[in-house]
Structures are given as C-alpha cells and as structure tokens.
Design brief:
Blueprint: E1 2-5, H1 11-25, E2 30-33, E3 41-48, E4 51-58, E5 61-65, H2 67-72, E6 77-85, E7 88-92, E8 95-99, E9 104-108, E10 113-117, E11 122-130, H3 131-134, H4 154-169, H5 177-192, H6 199-220, H7 229-236, H8 240-249, H9 254-272, H10 278-284, H11 290-301, H12 305-310
Antiparallel strand pairs: 1-3, 2-5, 3-4, 4-11, 5-10, 6-9, 6-11, 7-8, 7-10
Helix pairs in contact: 4-5, 4-6, 5-6, 6-8, 7-8, 9-10
C-alpha cells in the first residue's frame, strides 16, 4: 500500500505537496482551495490487477481535469468515485451529479471534468479503471459520466456494497485481485447499462454476485432471531421468491444456510468462551430452545455441545 499524507508537512507546504500527490496517485489534476482553511489531505492506494483503488480524505476544494492536463498526461481511464463522507459535486460535459455518502459516479479522463468537494471534511473511495476495459461494455458511454448512482436501485446497491468491501480490504486481497478487478468492471457496466453483446455475461456476473451478497448477509445477521427471507429481500430490494431462487442456484435453502451459520458461530464460541454457558451461546446466535439446539448441534457435528467444547 502506498500512502501520501499532507498532514505530516508544515502548514505552508501542505497544499503544494497535495498538488504533487494528486498527480502521482491519480493523473494530471489541478486542485484549487476554497477560502482560508486549515488544509489536510491523505491518499492510500492499492493496485488490484489493472485497477488502482484509493481512499482519499481531504478538505474543501475543487479538483479540475483541464484540457492542458489532458495534453500533459493523456491517460485513458475512468474514475469511479464512491462517496464515503461529506459531499462532492461531479461535473462533466453538460451533466452534474451531487454525491452523498453511499453514492457513486464516473468521470472520463479523456475529457475535462470538475469535482467540487463542498464539505470541510470528506472521504471517497476512488477506482481508476482502464477505459479500454469498461467503455466497450457501456451503452452510450459518452452519456454515462457525472451520473449519480445510488443504493435505491437494486443493481447499484449490490455494486456499492461490493465496491465498499473491496476498498476496505484492498490491502489484503492479494492473488484474488484479477477476478475481483473483473467483477468490478462487470458490476459497474451492469449498473450503468451494458451493450447488447455483453448483456448475458454481465447479467450472469451480477446474479452470481447478488447470490454471494445474500449468503454473506445471512452469515452477518445469523444472531438475529427474527431473520427471515423477507428481511433479506427487503435489504436487497428484491422479491422473497428471488432470494429463494438465488440460494437454490447455490445449492442452499434459506433455512438450511441460516441454521448452518448459527451452528458454526455457536461452535466457535463454545471453544473460545469457556466461561459462557451453552445456553447463553445458543440464545446469542438465534436459538430459542436449548433442547432443540443440542439435538441439532449433535446431528451437525456428531457430538453434543458439551463434548465438542471439551475436545
């Protein structure tokens, strides 16, 4: 991971240093400050195959990509900017997108654009994607930049969750970087609208990712005794029927997968927390009948909870 931290510089040197940081971490850009302020800024970057993933935090400013910058450094990439904190107004061509936390938008480095960071304290996840990878998948690519994508749309919601997870774990992804980079491109293309010749492939990728997201959701909420297929459907803004279909394609059912995850969590706690009673652990992970828990645990692991703990 590469880190650039303007906060470590003397106050008078921070913004000149920041100009250099943006050009090194991204492409040729021209930042301008908005008023007198105590400037701060930091960029953390990781490379996932051909996609550069950064977390950038800074102060109120405008960042331009001008014609002169394009001539000086004519890299052909898209930047996908996902707002984490604060606001950003992204402008390209005649389009404008005001990003709130959880929203994302694209800009094309081959044309001028302006990012107006209108908050005193803001953070973004930024993904630098080769233009040659993404553009062929987009319908009307020249009209897909500076468009706001939000979690209100189910496809965008899946993409946003995935992008957040990748950005937060980018440092540790390692050998999985190539398939993950491909997933990013496919999900972004599906969200923005894909060309007809790629539609089937992208739809299959999205379906696979949505299936994984549902499975992860069940595992993350296994302790909720009221967890139901309806809750999962509501979270992903899909139908209950579609939840069941996705799990069926993965060789699972909702109830079987939830039971498996609860038993796995109980098994982990039985060995990790010797001072906690078996009943407390069972109830912690969504069981409401100790006798039923013991029978189910024995059936799954081949031994009673007490014996499992003592092994």
């Amino acid at each position: 991971m590469a880190i650039w931290n303007a906060n470590e510089m003397p106050e008078r040197d921070r913004f000149p240093y920041w100009r250099e940081v943006l050009c090194e971490a991204y492409i040729a850009l021209n930042p301008t400050l908005e008023g007198e302020q105590h400037f701060k800024g930091e960029v953390k970057a990781n490379l996932l195959d051909c996609i550069n993933v950064t977390t950038i935090s800074s102060s109120r400013q405008k960042i331009h990509r001008r014609r002169v910058d394009i001539s000086r450094m004519p890299h052909e990439v898209y930047f996908l900017n996902l707002q984490v904190k604060g606001q950003c107004r992204m402008m390209q061509g005649s389009r404008e997108a005001l990003l709130e936390p959880g929203d994302f938008s694209l800009v094309d480095s081959t044309e001028p654009y302006l990012n107006d960071y209108c908050s005193d304290d803001w953070t973004q996840y930024s993904f630098r994607i080769p233009r040659a990878m993404l553009k062929p998948l987009l319908k009307q690519a020249d009209k897909q930049t500076a468009i706001r994508f939000t979690s209100a749309h189910p496809i965008a919601s899946v993409a946003i969750d995935y992008l957040k997870s990748v950005a937060q774990n980018a440092e540790h992804i390692g050998s999985a970087s190539t398939p993950i980079a491909n997933h990013i491109v496919d999900l972004v293309a599906m969200t923005a609208g894909v060309s007809t010749r790629e539609e089937d492939r992208a739809r299959g990728t999205l379906r696979s990712q949505l299936s994984r997201s549902v499975i992860q959701f069940i595992g993350a909420h296994a302790a909720d005794p009221t967890l139901t297929p309806a809750k999962a459907a509501q979270h992903f803004k899909i139908s209950v029927r579609y939840v069941h279909r996705l799990l069926e394609e993965s060789g699972e059912t909702f109830s079987r997968l939830l039971l498996k995850r609860r038993l796995e969590r109980c098994a982990d706690d039985l060995r990790a927390e010797a001072a906690i009673s078996i009943g407390e652990i069972a109830f912690r992970w969504g069981f409401n009948d100790l006798s039923h828990f013991s029978k189910t645990f024995r059936h799954h692991f081949g031994v009673a909870p007490r014996d499992y703990r003592s092994q």
